[in-house]
Structure formats: structure tokens, C-alpha cells
Amino acid sequence: MQGPKEYSEKEEKIFRAAIEEFAENGKQGARMHAIADHVGCNKALVHYYFRNKERLYEEVFDFLFSRFFITVHNAITDAPTFEETLTRFVDEFTDFLEEFGPYPILMLKEMDMDSKKKRFERIKEQTGMGPMSLFREKMEQAVERGEIRDLDVRQTFMSIMGECTYLFIAFPVLSLSNPEAAKHKKEIIEERKQHIIDLIYNGLKNKGLNNRQ
Amino acid sequence: MQGPKEYSEKEEKIFRAAIEEFAENGKQGARMHAIADHVGCNKALVHYYFRNKERLYEEVFDFLFSRFFITVHNAITDAPTFEETLTRFVDEFTDFLEEFGPYPILMLKEMDMDSKKKRFERIKEQTGMGPMSLFREKMEQAVERGEIRDLDVRQTFMSIMGECTYLFIAFPVLSLSNPEAAKHKKEIIEERKQHIIDLIYNGLKNKGLNNRQ
DNA sequence: GTCTATATCTCGATAGAC
DNA sequence: GTCTATCGAGATATAGAC
Asked: For the whole prediction, is pTM greater than 0.70?
């Protein structure tokens, strides 16, 4: 994992710890001393590198947000079938969630509209077409060649994102009925990917007029 | 909306405000004075009724958690087709999320395993069979009568929950590209319900051997 | 039950030695 | 760059009048 700018080794460690701490406890719940402890240094050093909590949070937010955006963007590629496009998308987005947890998604609530809009625009400039437009393109092509049904693009996009994200939200509850879930996390994640691809692709697939009620 | 115990009028108002405040800002981010302000009373009164922040939070958690559990439980009913079972489930669960936001779901992360397990068991006693077992029953019946495919129950359950929940997580982002989203929230929610039911049911439906690749 | 005033505490932030 | 010590803001919590 790389930070957004060039970080010294210590700085990088602090930044990583900050990502974890914010992800675990939210903006307000995060504790500067917890970040310091995790790295094995003093609070003052965290302030030395990142000035204050607000700036540190913003830097973490920017990093995660652009990572998220770029991941989703890159995950939508050309492929001969929409099934393959979907497979790659679910695969890469889930891997992203595995690395950073569902927090990058949940963070979006914590920013005021203006900041969000600004950051959104800035990243869009860097990556060209937004993820949604890209996804729309692939879906519409698949509809045209008769592979899938003509469903609302936004809704479908939300469905995929939701199915992927939910595993990581529900994991603590999953662990209740299956205490060893944490051990088999990798396996569970791979199973989940397959299920999502199967269920969604089947839901989208065009089965011809006589099969559509 | 009813509180878990018998509340006096004022107590109930404070409790409601607390739900909102915790939902908006998380456990640590919530402010006692914000709750008091919202009700139009003094901080001291909040303490008078609920002793301290920790207890208040736990009471809110318990209330939301059992509401969630009971909603999901009641939403899974007998119906001649699985499509109807699914429709009712998506409808009721989404309404629950509309009322309380995605927070009840996210709160599950904030409790330690032991408390969670205890609360889980307690509610299970009250409601009899857990939601998952109920859902399993309905799905297996539908598989037997050839209505739907034989997919993993847990996975399918997660898929539905995820698709429903995500709208409320993504809403702040939705509002970015569509500033009037907040105004049409009701409409958007109803559209989303329809999409979810359509996509999932189509994904589950058994199309006969020759249509299964 | 409800308020004002205040005590107590937690945590972010800074000063200053090394 | 890194630490110790400490300040000060802001929040929770309590005491005590009404």
C-alpha cells in the first residue's frame, strides 16, 4: 500500500495506523493516542507530521476515496460478455473491501456536500469518465447484443455494490453463529464472490420473450 | 414508535432524540447536549432519566436491535409463491431502514461479541425461530416445488439484505449527482424495492434444465 | 421533574528539552 | 525527529436549588 504523497517510513506507518483507527471508530471516535500507540510512538509525533486530527482525517479520506474511485473505475473493462465484465468488477471491488473494510463507503456520509463534490470532481478529472458512465456503456452494449435485460443502470450498479459491501458489514454477526468465520475469511469471501456473480448475472440475463413473465 | 419499556412522555422524547443523535454521529460522536437541545430541555434531565451516556446508548442499541430482529422475523411469512415472500420481505425491511436508517445494521459492529451474543439469544427466545431459519424454510419449500434454484440460503439472505441496505448507505452520494434526491426519497425508495425484487427473483427463478448453462 | 452552576475528566494540541 | 510535561477546550456527570 502506498500513501498519496511521498511519506517517510515513520510517516507512512502513522498514516496506515490512522486509516485503521478511523475505519474502526469513525472520525469522532478515533483517538490520536491510539494511533500513536499502535505505531509505538508519541502523540506529539502524530501532530508533528499531520498537524491536527482534522487534517489527518482529510488525508485519510482523500486517500481512501481516490483508491475506491480508481479501483471501481479500473474494474470496469471491456470484455466479450457482460458476465466477464461483472465477474471482474465483483472480484476487484470485493478485494478492495477486503483490504480497507467497508469504511471508505461509509465515510461518504461523514463529509459535507461541498468537500465531497470538490473531491469527486478532482478525481474525475484524473480518471476521465466516471465509473457510472463506464458501467452504463458496458451495460448498454450488452443490452444491445441481447445478452442482458434492459434494467436501470443506476439501480443495477447499486445492487452489485450493495451485495459486495454487505458481507463486510455483516461479518461481525456472521461470526456469532460461526465463531471460526474469521479463520476462513478468505474462503468465505471467494464463495461470496461466486454467489454474487451467479445471482446477479442470472437476474440480468435475457431469457427470451417466452420466459419473461 | 414505542420505546422498549413504559416511558413517560418526556422520557420517550429524549429517547427518540437519542436514537437520531446516535444514528447521525455514532456512539462517540453523539453529544448529550445535542439530545437535550433537540428535545428543548437541559442536559441534566437526560442524565436524570438515563443515568449516563453509556446506558443510554445501550438502551438505544437494544431497542434498535430487537426492532430490527423482529421486523426481519415478521417479514418472512408464508405465501403461495416465493416471489410474494420476497416482495414482502424487501418491502418491510426497506421500510424499517427508511425509519431508522442503516444505523441499526452498522451498530452491530460497535458491540463486543459477548454482549451481542447475549442480546441475540434473549431476542431469539422471545421470537422463537431465528430469521435465518425461517428464511431457510421458505426457500427450501420453493426449491422443492421447483420455483427457484437451489442456492445457498445464507448467501441469498445476505444478497437481499445488502441490496436493501445499500440505498441508504449510498444516499449521500446519490444526492451529489442529483441534488433533488432528498425531495423524492419516497419515490426513489419505491423504485428501488421494485428493482431489487425483480433482479433477485429473476436471479433465483428456476428456468428449467435447458436454460441453465 | 426540571433547572443552574459547577466539578471532573478526556482528549487534542502545544511548549520546550534532548 | 522524537520525547515529556502540560495547557485548555469541550464534554460528561453531579450537586443542589426550586
From this structure: yes
